[in-house]
Design goal:
The chain is mainly alpha-helical and 166 residues long. 85% of the residues lie in helices and 0% in strands. The protein has six helices and no strands.
Amino acid sequence: MYFTQLALTLNKLSFVSEIKIKDCFTFFYFVFHSTCINFASMLKNILLVALGGACGSVARYLLSKLVQDNALSNFPFGTMTVNILGCLLIGMVYGLAENNISISPALKLLLTVGFCGGFTTFSTFMNESLSLLRADSAAMMALYVGGSVALGLLAVFAGLQIIKLI
């Protein structure tokens, strides 16, 4: 209906020819149609990432709190544990894909970008590293950064290997 009113308005203008109106509508139809199709598939992906991210964030909070509440020091064991487990999980998901084990693109998106993105805490990791450095705990900071990177790398590798054994 809107396009019909627009066409009538454009027809009243003497400088707009019938061919230009047809070209204009063809262009707008193409843009509108392709945008709707892209939006529908993009919306599905956004919802998958949001769902995975929400679940990952809640899991991060609960696991990190559980580990840190039971730690015997100020060392950020909770964040480190979450990051290493997130590395293990993402390694396992990519291991499935590498070994041609059927995992849908939607599930891969939900688990990697969504869940692991919400679950792992790189920004928290960096903030805690800086806090340790500011507290004159350079050795603790080095242990935390080095340990997280080394153990995270090993966890991704372990995830890949676990999938190969299955």
